Amino acid sequence: MRLADTLRFARDAATGYPMRTTLSVLAMSIGVAAVVILTALGDGARRYVVGQFSSLGTNLIIVLPGRSGTGGFNPANAITSTPRDLTIDDAGSLRRLPGTRRVAPLAVGTSEINYGGKLREVMVAGSTAEFIPIRNFEIAQGQGLPEEDWNRGSSVAVIGAKIREEMFGANQAIGQLVRVGDRRLRIVGVLKSTGQGLGMNTDELVIVPVSLAQAMFNSNTLFRIMIEANSRDAIPSTKERVMETLKQRHRGEEDVTVITQDAVLATFDKLLGALTLAVAGIAAISLAVAGILVMNVMLVAVTQRTGEIGLLKALGATSRTIRLAFLAEAAMLSAVGALVGYLLGQLGAFALRQFFPVFPAYPPDWAVIAGLTTALATGLIFGVMPARRAARLDPVQALMKH
Amino acid sequence: MALIELSGIERRFLLGDTTVHALAGLNLQIDAGEYVAVMGPSGSGKSTLLNLLGLLDRPNEGTYKLEGRDVTTLSPDEQATVRSTRIGFVFQSFHLVPRLTAAENIALPMTLAGIPAVERNKRVAQALKDFGLENRADHKPDQLSGGQRQRVAIARATIMQPALILADEPTGNLDRHTGEEVVNLLEALNAKGVTLIVVTHDQGMGARARRQLVMEDGRLKADSRAASISNLAEISG
Q: pLDDT tens for residues A364-400?
């Protein structure tokens, strides 16, 4: 039988039993749609996290006090178990390094803000003028912290959008004096509202000069030092130099941890990529189930059409012709199912994006291709057995069943 | 040369513990262009003989020569090719494919044989005309009367221009009048030189054939051709 005739014959056979055909197409399409939607979710999560990390700032290098070393227990670590604190001077020494564009020390703590009888607990970040550009924050009103000697902080503060709204309402906030902890500070700027991000929530943040914050919390240590490298390529060399400088300053001890945004990003990327793969694997199980259903449907088809198979044999059809006709039908069921499932999946992903605009739920190409090919392959593989059974039928027995 | 030559044919079926001899020691010659009626009670082996002649079944013993060629030893696919090109079947219950139109049903053997669509359409158009089915071409079998269905089936059986037509109770599901029409059609084909073998219960129809075979318990009880030569009295008595 010619290929076109085989395909037409299979199509007519499939459409001749609408219920059976609809069910198996439905099963296959649910399988493929599951792969598409679940991987869209997984990959969307990956993109979301990566996007959030990127919004922390560009070309960021972060210095943490203490050595969160790898390599397990080491006698040297045991002796020098108390790490030296990070200080403002440590941060200052990094400003002159080649490859660094900006450096901002960061000290954090919680305190209370008080204005006009209203009291509220706030997160206080002590830093410098460069903190805001490094973290890609934006100023809505006024200006950022003044450029000044890091050790002599003036009594000013930049407040988050939510604090401004709660403390001042409709009134002008810039220029007002507020009490933060035991200090009276003048508000010089208000941050633009950013909403909840992966980093700290800037809407409820009060930014003050770093030395002021240290005095407020009665401590000399820094929580972090943030460094912005000149370019992406400069990150590794800058990281090395930062490490080296701090080691020298700390009497040759490597008691700080330097992480780069790239490394964190890569880790998350890998982690969430693996998650997507796992989810795709789970969804693939439903494809296998759909394949078994196609087999079941084809076996029913062989039983239902036993008389027809006998007739075809009497009319001179070879086993091969019959095998191909049934295989083509199975392939058609799974192909249509795969196509419908692909469309359903894309529709589902589209709906997800409509409901959660921040969540980039796009199915990755590899998942779509793998899903479609798995669907077709399972359909074909599970179609082989029924097709062989059909081809092997004894024509005399088959004709009697008509 | 004989078209069909059966010698020492045995066909046994195992029914539970007992072996049933559907055909036993059958020797038979049918020449090209003959019109043969096979008669006998149910279970006498008529259908088994027809299936065997149509290469749908294999004998346990003996040889079957079709056009001088031993076809019992052919592979299933070679037998399929012989069925496709040399043999046409007409069944009691028509055996049309319900989802295909009359024209598609008639074209089915050509489709299976891989004949191009252009050639198929030409031959189907001619067949529709020959069998008076021109305005029924696009009808599905369930939209056709019994007589029309059997005409479609006969058109299908002849579309590959076979040498042999095997008809199993072709009028069994038809009323007297349409049955008569169908028999006339088959006889017209026979008149054009196609060998026609009809299995029937109908004495009247059997009598119209030029040669009658009577089967009983898997054996040839009577053969009118042999009888005409030797002992005619045996079948009449």
A: 898 889 888 988 888 888 889 999 999 998 888 888 8
Nearest to A2 among B54, B114, B160 (CB): B114
Q: Are the beta carbons of B85 and A316 separated by less than 8 Å?
A: yes
Place of tokens 């793969």: A277
Q: Across the interface, which of A16, A312, A320 has its CB nearest the CB of B99?
A: A16
| pLDDT 10s digits, B161-217 | 999 999 999 998 899 999 999 999 999 999 999 999 999 988 888 999 999 999 999
Confidence of residue A284 (pLDDT cuts 50, 70, 90): confident
Chain centroid to Cα A300, Å, comes to 44
Which two tokens mark A294?
Answer: 């196609």
Of B77, B89, B93, nearest to A402 by CB-CB distance is B93
The alpha-carbon gap from A31 to the nearest alpha carbon of chain B, in Å, equals 30
Q: Is A170 exposed, middle or buried (0-12, 13-18, 19+ CB in 10 A)?
A: exposed
φ/ψ bin of A74: left (φ > 0), alpha (ψ from -120 to 50), beta (otherwise)? beta
A400 — contact with chain B (CB < 8 Å)?
no
- Which DSSP letter does residue A203 get? G
**A96 phi and psi angles, rounded to 5 deg:** -85, -5
ipTM: 0.89
Q: What are φ and ψ of residue B186, in 5° steps? A: -65, -40
In tens, the pLDDT along A122-176 reads: 999 999 999 988 888 888 889 989 988 888 888 999 999 889 988 888 888 899 9
Q: Where are the domains of chain B?
A: 2-236
Is B97 in contact with A315 (Cβ distance < 8 A)? no
CATH of B2-236, one of 3.40.50.2000, 3.50.50.60, 3.40.50.300, 3.30.2320.30: 3.40.50.300
Name the E strands within B51-162: 61-66, 69-70, 87-90
d(CA A236, CA A242): 10
How far off is chain A from B229, nearest CA to CA, in Å? 35
Beta strand spans in B67-203 (E): 69-70, 87-90, 164-168, 195-199
Average pLDDT, chain A: 86
What integer pLDDT is reported at residue A301 of this predicted model? 87
Q: Tell me the average pLDDT across B146-156.
A: 94
| Residues facing residue B197 across a β-bridge | B36, B166
CB contact under 8 A, A9 and B57: no
The whole-chain average pLDDT of chain B stands at 90
Closest by CA to A379, choosing from A60, A3, A10, is A10
Whether residue A87 lies within 8 A of chain B, CB to CB, comes out as no
Beta-strand runs (E) in A71-171: 100-115, 118-127, 139-142, 156-159
pLDDT tier at B227 (50, 70, 90 boundaries)?
low
Distance CA A203, CA A138 (A): 11
Q: How far apart are CA A315 and CA B114, in angstroms?
A: 12
Query: B225 or B86: which carries more pLDDT confidence?
Result: B86
